[in-house]
Amino acid sequence: MIHWQDKTRFHIGSTAFRCYDWVFGSQPSTAQEYFLQKDAAMVRDYLELVQRLKPRQIVELGIWQGGSCVFFNELCRPQKMVAMELSTEPVPALEHYLCHSAHGHSLSTFYGIDQADNTALTGIISAEFGNTPLDLVVDDASHFVAETRSSFNVLFPRLRPGGAYVIEDWAWAHDPVDDPQGAVDLYPDKEPLSRLVFEFILAAGSTQGIIQHIEVDRHRVTAYRGDAEIPQADFDISQLCLKRGKAMLAQHPPGGA
Ligand SMILES: C[S@@+](CC[C@H](N)C(=O)[O-])C[C@H]1O[C@@H](n2cnc3c(N)ncnc32)[C@H](O)[C@@H]1O
User: Fold this and answer.
1) Backbone phi, then psi, for 99, in 5-degree steps?
2) Residue from 234, 221, 239 nearest 154 by CA
3) What is the Å distance from ligand 1's center to 165 Cα?
4) How far does the centroid of ligand 1 lie from the alpha carbon of residue 60, in Å?
């Protein structure tokens, strides 16, 4: 399914991809080679996830160079995939893919969409999927707490039971990157995204059938939806814990040092 050419380059069918690596860095996609802001290990992890999940309805937040949209669309051959992005500038290589590839018809892109804009997200999801539940959501957009939680609150209840919600790079505030002393302090004024991971854990412990299972590694956290009825209006993951959980979260208030 994935044919590796070397450590960073691979094909799916006739579509060529290049992964991120520390030497090569981030590059524009071209119609000949789509760039993914994911390293080779993450690509292998996604292959394992989609083989298990077999997603037919997919949402991705954060398009960047479009490589991950093309990757999921080619790898999963979904019935429908929707990708959203804050930037208003369409990615030329991705537009080329949409018009010229045999499978481009299943992918729809939306630019100028802030993942924190609940009204926009709800409108797009309703128009594109109707009442069909989602199988997989991949959030690789802002990586900030309020924005990431906001789209989680809209999209997680729309997953089917057993569906997966992936948030990439949750550990940016704790990752030594290339500095084991941790002196590279990314976004010092921003709350670490790990707060949301703790909210998932507390919700899994305090409720039944909402978050059924959580997987965490250093690149991503994946929350699997349980089989409870989840009202779509006013769902708020940060409120789904009992008083001791709330007390724990209150010890580290948003914006706290
Ligand atoms: C890490 S890149 C995405 C990489 C891409 N998924 C891949 O794997 O190749 C993050 C993208 O999210 C977009 N973004 C940042 N904040 C956002 C927000 N609030 N809403 C939607 N997209 C956002 C950025 O403009 C950027 O294109």
Assistant:
1) -85, -30
2) 234
3) 16
4) 9
36 within 8 A of 17, measured Cβ to Cβ: yes
Ligand 1 pocket check for 59: Cβ under 6 Å: no
What average pLDDT does range 44-55 have in this prediction? 97
Closest of 64, 78, 1 to residue 34, by C-alpha = 64
Reply yes or no on whether the pLDDT at 180 is more than 70: no
C-beta 61 within 6 A of ligand 1: yes
Q: CA 46 → CA 9, 213, 221, 235, distances in Å?
A: 16, 17, 12, 27
Cα–Cα distance, 148 to 115 (Å, whole number): 7
What does the pLDDT look like over 189-226, one tens digit per residue? 899 999 999 999 999 999 999 999 999 999 999 999 99
| Domain 39-250 class, CATH top level | alpha beta
- Other CB atoms closer than 10 Å to residue 114's CB: what's the count? 17
- Ligand 1 atom closest to the Cα of residue 60 is 6
CA distance 46 to 10: 14
